[in-house]
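Exercise 7.
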Amino acid sequence: MSPNASSMLDISSNSRGILIPRMTTVQRDAIASPPEGLNIYNLTTKKTNIYSNGVWKSLAFENVSNLVYVYSMADLPTPAGAVISLDGTKMYIFSGFVDISPNYIVMNGAGLRGID
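Solution. The predicted structure, written as tokens, is:
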């Protein structure tokens, strides 16, 4: 198999994976001036981390099945009066502009994130 012409590194296998550097949170935090986009596997949290905008971020969600993508009011719980009560066990991700007027949202411990 020929390497992809637009790739600096092209690894192919039908029976093996790739291991990125593995370290604890303490070891990760000891990296002097990590470059933007640096990846490690964090042995403390058991998650892949990436360095972005001056902070380490996890690439994994704990409960992916609990994500709710909100594109319109139809994706939210039915309002009671003017109150939309979010489920505290879910993470709601709003995409673009979602008009909820004349209602308002009560978080109830739910996660809320916006994507433009």
